[in-house]
């Protein structure tokens, strides 16, 4: 007994080894299925459980690669698993695993045509992380089709239209707005999209005129009226929303929106910033 | 056949092993209820998902154990000779036993299924998940699929019991068949989809799977749980084809069992 006590004290002085990381192993899918007695849904649940209980605060870059693989496998085993896509959207893109996140979200979008969230998160990742507003807008439109609530659907289409307008490909933005206006259920929204088409066409015309101005005078125009005086534009384009078109200090086309303020039953509008 | 069916029915309730698996099934239903607490947003769905996996596991083992007890053990102990001394054909003995197994496993499926149904209703407490589960006809159809899955396994074990001389062979073979039958569908789909660009892996699996898919039925095609869990109804033609394949496969195995059993010598 005394020897046991001495040995136990010596063991405590050695200290326990630190436990290995949660994310060391990712088995091939067939092995996961067989480990779950052939049940793919059980295999998916086991994989998602690992993802849900993982302590992300202490995980290394390699651990997140494994986590991405585990969640991608879970998405293959059961694409409709809601917890899997939710955790994937929340964790993977912020830790460098964009491809895995988009794979999970893409599969969930296909498997859950009643759920707007997977295509919405996919769209957000394209816009925010991949800086691809055009592709993000396409996925937002998909989220709009998945949404059962008309307000959500309308909101997603509106955001998609705004994102497309921010993208570098103005022809694509004009085509997409026209297409959305044709298929929009609400007349007011269709009218709004048509106005955005007019704004985009104005932008296209101004930018083409600016290129001609630069080619002739080897400098940027200071205001839109310069383009009209140089006969690169017939008239100053009129914005359908009442905004004013300007050039910034780098010569880029910008839109200064009209801001209206209501006070004492009267409203006052201005294009001042 | 009726007397053998009735004696199987009574014997099934006396089997301690079957009772053990049934109690395991109850424990798994309780486990499924608490498993919902690990879910972030779909508590009832997780209860159903885990519960269905446990239910399938138990139904398969109940079916294997029943065939083992009612046919395999009787052959091993030679007490089958007394049963066959009745003025009834060997086919009626075997079929009576098998239908008794089906009735017992159906009873277990109904009881465990009802308890899982209640667990899914109660799961999550007051939390209303965004996408509801479907606990009506879709749930009971899924349950039927799991019972049919276990019945095909029972037919396989019946065949092995009819020819086996080693008592553990039907159990071991039945478990292996249940796992391979359930896994073959997803593994085939995985290899067909490119095996995650693992050509070497696909190269290894392909020859074996090419033969196996004609020998082992795809029991995963009887797993229709996405309908109650997500409201994703399976294609009607696919369900009909899966049921037909299962019935024909089980029927074939039973036919072979009857033929083999009819020619077996019991010294």
Describe the 3D structure.
The complex is a heterodimer of chains A (273) and B (267). Chain A has a domain at 22-112. Helices cover 62% and strands 7% of the residues of chain A. In chain A, a hairpin with a 2-residue loop joins strand 3 (259-263) and strand 4. Chain A has 12 helices and 4 strands, in the order H-H-H-H-H-H-H-H-H-H-H-H-E-E-E-E. With 267 residues, chain B is mainly α. Chain B has one domain (2-262). The longest helix of chain B is centred in the first third of the chain and has 34 residues, at 43-76. The radius of gyration of chain B is 20 Å and the shape is globular. Chain B starts with a helix and ends in a 5-residue tail after the last helix. Classes of the chains: A mainly alpha (273), B mainly alpha (267).
Portion in beta strands of chain A: 5-15%
User: Biggest sheet of chain A, strands in spatial order?
Assistant: 1-2
Mean of residue pLDDT of chain B?
88
String of helices and strands of chain B: HHHHHHHHHH
Major sheet of chain B: none
Quote the distance from N terminus to C terminus of chain A: 84 Å
Q: Most extensive interface: pair and counts?
A: A-B, 27 and 36 residues
Helix content, binned percent of chain B: over 70%
Proportion of helical residues of chain A: 55-70%
Structural class of chain B: mainly alpha
Oligomer, anyone?
heterodimer
Give me the number of helical elements of chain B. 10
Shape of chain A: elongated
Number of strands of chain B: 0
Low-confidence stretches of chain B: none
N to C succession of SSEs of chain A: HHHHHHHHHHHHEEEE
């Amino acid at each position: 007994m005394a020897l046991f006590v001495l040995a136990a004290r010596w063991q405590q002085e050695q200290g326990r080894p630190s436990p290995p990381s949660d994310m060391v192993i990712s088995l091939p899918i067939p092995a996961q299925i067989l480990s779950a007695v052939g049940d793919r849904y059980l295999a998916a649940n086991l994989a998602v459980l690992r993802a849900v209980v993982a302590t992300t605060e202490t995980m290394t870059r390699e651990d997140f690669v494994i986590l991405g693989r585990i969640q991608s496998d879970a998405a293959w085993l059961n694409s409709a698993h809601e917890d899997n896509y939710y955790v994937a959207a929340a964790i993977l893109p912020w830790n460098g695993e964009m491809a895995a996140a988009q794979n999970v979200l893409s599969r969930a979008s296909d498997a859950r045509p009643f759920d707007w969230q997977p295509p919405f998160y996919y769209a957000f990742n394209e816009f925010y992380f991949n800086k691809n507003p055009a592709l993000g807008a396409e996925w937002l439109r998909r989220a709009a089709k998945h949404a059962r609530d008309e307000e959500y659907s309308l909101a997603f289409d509106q955001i998609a239209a705004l994102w497309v307008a921010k993208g570098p490909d103005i022809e694509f933005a004009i085509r997409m707005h026209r297409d959305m206006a044709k298929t929009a259920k609400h007349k007011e929204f269709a009218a709004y999209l048509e106005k955005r088409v007019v704004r985009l066409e104005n932008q296209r015309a101004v930018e083409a005129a600016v290129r001609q101005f630069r080619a002739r005078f080897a400098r940027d125009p200071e205001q839109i009226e310069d383009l009209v005086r140089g006969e690169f534009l017939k008239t100053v384009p009129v914005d359908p929303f009442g905004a004013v078109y300007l050039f910034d200090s780098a010569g880029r086309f910008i839109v200064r929106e009209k801001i209206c303020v209501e006070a004492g039953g009267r409203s006052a509008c201005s294009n001042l910033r | 056949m009726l007397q053998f069916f009735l004696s199987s029915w009574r014997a099934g309730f006396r089997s301690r092993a079957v009772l053990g698996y049934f109690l395991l099934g109850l424990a798994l239903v309780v486990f499924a209820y608490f498993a919902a607490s690990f879910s972030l947003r779909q508590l009832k769905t997780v209860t159903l998902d885990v519960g269905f996996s446990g239910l399938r596991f138990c139904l398969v083992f109940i079916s294997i154990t029943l065939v083992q007890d009612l046919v395999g053990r009787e052959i091993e102990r030679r007490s089958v000779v007394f049963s066959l001394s009745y003025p009834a054909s060997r086919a009626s003995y075997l079929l009576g036993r098998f239908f008794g197994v089906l009735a017992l496993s159906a009873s277990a499926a109904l009881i465990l299924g009802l308890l899982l149904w209640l667990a899914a209703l109660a799961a999550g407490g007051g939390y209303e998940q965004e996408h509801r589960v479907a606990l009506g006809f879709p749930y009971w159809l899924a349950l039927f699929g799991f019972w049919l899955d276990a019945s095909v396994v029972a037919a396989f074990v019946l065949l092995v019991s009819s020819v086996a001389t080693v008592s553990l062979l039907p159990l071991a073979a039945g478990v292996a068949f249940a796992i391979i039958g359930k896994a073959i569908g997803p593994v085939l789909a995985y290899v067909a989809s490119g095996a995650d660009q693992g050509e070497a892996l696909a190269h290894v699996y392909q020859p074996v799977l090419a033969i196996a898919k004609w020998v082992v039925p795809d029991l995963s095609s009887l797993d229709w749980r996405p309908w109650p869990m997500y409201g994703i109804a399976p294609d009607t033609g696919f369900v009909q084809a899966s049921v037909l394949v299962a019935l024909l496969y089980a029927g074939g195995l039973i036919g072979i069992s009857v033929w083999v059993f009819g020619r077996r010598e019991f010294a």
